[in-house]
Amino acid sequence: MSATRKSLWTLVVAILTTACASGPRWVAAGGTYTPPSNRYTMQLPQGWRRLEGQDWLLTSRDGPFLQSLSVRIIEVDKPLGKSTKKVLARGMLPQEAAEVIQDAIASSPGMQGMKLLENAPAELDGRPGFKLVVGYKDEDGLKMKAVVYGVLVGDSLYQLTYRAPERYYFQQDLATAEQMRATFRIAQPAAVQTRGAN
Amino acid sequence: MKWLVGTVALAAAGCVTTALPPATASGFRLEDDERSLWRQAEEAEEQFESGGVVYPDVDLEAYLNDVARRLGPPEAFAAIPFRIRVVRNPYLNAFTLPNGRIYVHTGMLARMENEAQLATLLGHEMTHATHRHAVRERRNLKNKAALAVGLNSILPGVGSLAGFSAVRGYSREMEAEADDNAMRLLANAGYDVREAPKLFVHLKEQLSEEKQSEPFFFGTHPALDDRVENYRRLIELQYGHRPAGETNAQTFLQRTREVVHENAMLDLRAGRFVAAERGARKYAALDPSAARGPFLLGELSRQRGGETAADTALTEYRRAVALDASYPEPYRAMGLVLYKRGDKAGAREAFDKYLSLVPQAADRAYIEQYLGSSTK
């Protein structure tokens, strides 16, 4: 089982475990999505499903192994994962934040032969950020491709990642993923009032 | 007759013998389960290598294989087609597949000091293959009905090979056997046997200094303690009287210089700053005329952050361009530091120089954005 799949399975199992207690599970997406933290909004397409946490979201149409768009919020000075000790810092240029995220991806377990295909400035909610496109093989030797958008706002990096097997699936839903990105809006600090996780 | 009784008893108990002669013994042939293990290793290895993890340096590989040949008796190479490969991975590790493929991480090579230390490691690893530890361990586990234990361990960067015991380390007895035989190979090849414990003392000191927890066998304190103790004991009991042998430090350091740089980059990417700094300084000392040394030290300072980070980084970048004015990376990095400082004229000059050296730079769009804003 690949690292990507392992982490997705871990996420799924964790959600299912907590689901017994509190109820969150894959639910139909579609329409405006706001996370429990109320920190952003995004339009999700009809026919997709979603899993959510306080500050993360996983959406997919055919299942996360075939395509997924995830959103996560990473705070500066907080660990990015077990495989890297690099952290984001306040005031980083988009290029510097991209470098940290790129290195975190490259150092992650199971990542094989990662190739950076693109690293360019990009906007997220009209704010200057970055876009990374990477290709890699998972532990099963499956060629994967991912597009990562990120923007650092104050002490938080908002990161959107679209990931799919390179062959067929990546191209199939890229336009949908880009549409979702185009609708991503970061909430003004005053508007953020945490709703209870459902 | 005793043998027959023993075999029948084992068969009745569903057990297979774990006492196998080494592959160097006359009449060696693979047992059925061993052949299957070799096949599995070959398949997993093919998948592993297709992932782009192997460090592609033909000369270095030739050097490592020469050292292995010097160590191994001809009958070992006749029985097992040894081949040493280098894996791009900053963690301390080396492992041997049953078919004689030995993988040494860049993290291991970069931290060694001389050829005698390399020979210690290779001798240890080769023994795992010649003494058929993989099949013995598997039979042992099978006998204990615990085959599945540990086969699904999650280790970074080993992918399809994670199921092999070699990657995680063998039983204590087999590791001790590998130490013992490695020492014999080392001594027979004329290397300085005193370097054997030094290697593991050195690795242990570095691990402590880095405050790293590492997932692989050679990156754990108990494993390193065992190695130090075993090699010291062997010297005391059997090899203490020997005159000092060869270390071939110069040759080793010259041959592995680029690995030191590569590994320091890997450490830097993983945010292992202490290890990265050690590697960067070692590389800069090994090749004082290379601009990549000070550039790497500059990058380390910039990415690590801190009060004086920008000044230190700028000093190193300037040293780098003084060594090689056509090296583009320090100009880009200087531009970034100066841009963040608000020195727009300085940033522009550095970025212009960078783009003049690499017109097709992958990050040209970022640079043009900075240049656009630095004229405002």
Features:
heterodimer, A: 198 residues, Protein Transport Mog1p, Chain A, 3-stranded antiparallel β-sheet, 3 helices, 11 strands, 37% strand, globular, B: 376 residues, mainly alpha, 3-stranded mixed β-sheet, 3 strands
Q: Between the first and last Cα atoms of chain A, what is the distance in angstroms?
A: 30 Å
Largest sheet of chain B: 3 strands, mixed
CATH topology of chain A: Protein Transport Mog1p, Chain A
Overall helicity of chain B: 55-70%
Indicate the radius of gyration of chain A in whole angstroms. Answer: 16 Å
Q: Helicity level of chain A, as a percent range?
A: 10-25%
Radius of gyration of chain B: 25 Å
The amount of beta strand of chain A, in percent, is 35-45%
The number of helical elements of chain B comes to: 19
Number of strands of chain B: 3
User: Element order, helices and strands of chain A?
Assistant: HEEEEEEHEEEEHE
| Assigned CATH class of chain A | Alpha Beta
Main β-sheet of chain A: number of strands, strand sense, barrel status? Answer: 8 strands, antiparallel
The computed structural class of chain B is: mainly alpha
Query: Which strand order do you get reading across the main beta sheet of chain A?
Result: 1-4-5-6-10-9-8-7
* SSE-based structural type of chain A: alpha+beta
**Low-pLDDT runs of chain B:** 1-13, 145-154
The largest contact between protein chains, plus residue counts on each side, is: A-B, 32 and 26 residues
| Overall morphology of chain B | elongated
Q: Which overall shape of chain A is indicated by the principal axes computed on the Cα atoms?
A: globular
- Please give the domain count of chain A: 1
Topology:
The complex is a heterodimer of chains A (198) and B (376).
Chain A (H helix, E strand, L loop, with lengths): L2 H20 L4 E2 L2 E3 L6 E5 L4 E4 L3 E5 L7 E8 L18 H14 L4 E13 L2 E11 L5 E11 L2 E10 L3 H14 L2 E2 L12
Antiparallel strand pairs in A: 1-4, 2-3, 3-11, 4-5, 5-6, 6-10, 7-8, 8-9, 9-10
Chain B lengths: L1 H11 L19 H18 L8 H14 L2 H6 L3 E5 L6 E3 L4 E5 H4 L5 H16 L2 H11 L21 H4 L3 H17 L6 H16 L10 H19 L9 H7 L1 H13 L3 H14 L5 H13 L4 H15 L5 H13 L2 H14 L6 H11 L2
Parallel strand pairs in B: 1-3
Antiparallel strand pairs in B: 2-3
